[in-house]
């Protein structure tokens, strides 16, 4: 099965909303001002994308850790070690201002896709995992571009 379950697809798409909203508030400054005034500064522009992106990279570390529990021996140890990389990457690379933080997050999400592929090659991720992750990652990276550029 290469199609993700409906619930996984819907939750994955819902998880894109903060990235999409953040990109929209960067591209249309009037919307960004409205969002900051109405919803609060946390829900506009780069701040929304960077804060949320950091949380999602940490969350994805947990997902990979869960995949690692399906392995045994040295592969399990490798899986656990690899699974903490996205969270550590976000922690250590996102503090230098919006442009560098957004660049680091984009690199982190692309590297996460490589980790996803490795876990899939090891047979630890469901067959539908890579099609879902590839599409979600593409949208996330595209949404970070307005902050990077």
**Largest sheet, strands/sense/barrel:** none
**Poorly predicted tracts of residues:** none
**Oligomer state of the chains in this structure:** single chain
| H/I helix tally | 8
Number of domains: 1
Provide structural commentary:
The mean pLDDT is 95. The chain has helices at 6-14, 17-27, 29-38, 45-68, 73-83, 85-93, 98-121, 129-148. It has one domain (6-148). The protein is an all-alpha fold and 149 residues long.
Topology overview:
Blueprint: H1 6-14, H2 17-27, H3 29-38, H4 45-68, H5 73-83, H6 85-93, H7 98-121, H8 129-148
Pfam family, one: DUF3429
Protein name: Membrane protein, putative
Organism: Oceanicola granulosus (strain ATCC BAA-861 / DSM 15982 / KCTC 12143 / HTCC2516)
Looking at this protein, list some descriptive labels:
149 residues, mainly alpha, 79% helix
Task: Give the gist of this structure.
This is Membrane protein, putative. The protein has 149 residues and is mostly helical.
């Amino acid at each position: 099965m290469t199609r993700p379950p409906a619930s996984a697809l819907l939750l994955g798409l819902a998880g894109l909303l903060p990235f999409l909203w953040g990109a929209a508030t960067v591209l249309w400054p009037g919307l960004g001002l409205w969002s900051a005034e109405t919803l609060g500064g946390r829900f506009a522009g780069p701040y929304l994308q960077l804060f949320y992106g950091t949380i999602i990279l940490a969350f994805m570390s947990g997902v990979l850790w869960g995949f690692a529990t399906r392995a045994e021996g040295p592969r399990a140890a490798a899986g656990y070690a690899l699974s903490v990389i996205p969270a550590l990457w976000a922690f250590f690379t996102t503090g230098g201002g919006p442009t560098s933080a957004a660049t680091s997050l984009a690199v982190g999400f692309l590297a996460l896709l490589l980790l996803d592929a490795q876990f899939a090659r090891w047979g630890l991720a469901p067959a539908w995992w890579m099609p879902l992750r590839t599409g979600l990652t593409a949208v996330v990276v595209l949404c970070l571009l307005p902050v990077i550029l």
